[in-house]
Write a structure and sequence with these properties.
Length: about 190
């Protein structure tokens, strides 16, 4: 049998066996709450919104239509995971291509797990002269391994258990970012 078909069947099996931790309506409600809180804080700030690729693009695409105020959008790509299941060193594939000097910047990402990537992005933006750097994540994983004690995003959609999550922007080995809701790999 073709190894690509076997791999694709394994990827499908992961989704079929996964535990749904937040269904699509729960995710929608979380994004609505985030948008309301972000609008209350940033509607007069002329913010620059930076989507963190790849996971943050799904949340950003769902969040922006709910923000009825002027903002500028760009992206960056920094990751510790790639298609791996465990994080390593931070790889900067692309820095922001816009000037952040004296700007209020909102970083949008899919998940706050340990937080090394998020802290590195915040540090880089501050070094580049951002006046204020805020963060928005769809999911904050509940655990005691944060890169800094008490690390939290400024805007969080859901707090979920410390499991291997996918869907709504989060992936399993590069797949299932498109899955509706948020799912946990069975046994992980």
């Amino acid at each position: 049998m073709n190894p690509d078909i076997i791999r694709l069947n394994d990827i499908r099996r992961i989704r079929d066996e996964a535990d749904c931790l937040a269904d699509a309506p729960m995710v929608d409600a979380a994004i609505d709450r985030m948008a309301s809180n972000i609008a209350a804080r940033l509607s007069n700030a002329d913010p620059l919104v930076l989507a963190v690729m790849n996971g943050g693009i799904v949340l950003t695409g769902r969040l922006l239509p709910r923000l009825d105020f002027p903002l500028e959008l760009s992206w960056l790509h920094a990751t510790r995971y790639g298609h791996d299941c465990e994080g390593g060193k931070i790889d900067w594939h692309a820095s922001p291509n816009v000037n952040v000097q004296s700007r209020t910047v909102l970083i949008v990402d899919d998940i706050l797990d340990v937080g090394h990537t998020l802290l590195a992005v915040i540090e880089r933006l501050r070094e580049q002269g951002a006046e204020e750097v805020l963060t928005a994540v769809l999911v904050d994983k509940r655990h005691d391994r944060k890169a800094r004690p008490g690390l939290k995003a400024d805007f969080t959609g859901l707090e979920l258990p410390d499991r291997f999550l996918f869907g709504s922007g989060m992936d399993y080995r590069g797949y299932w970012r498109n899955a509706a809701g948020i799912h946990a790999v069975k046994g992980l």
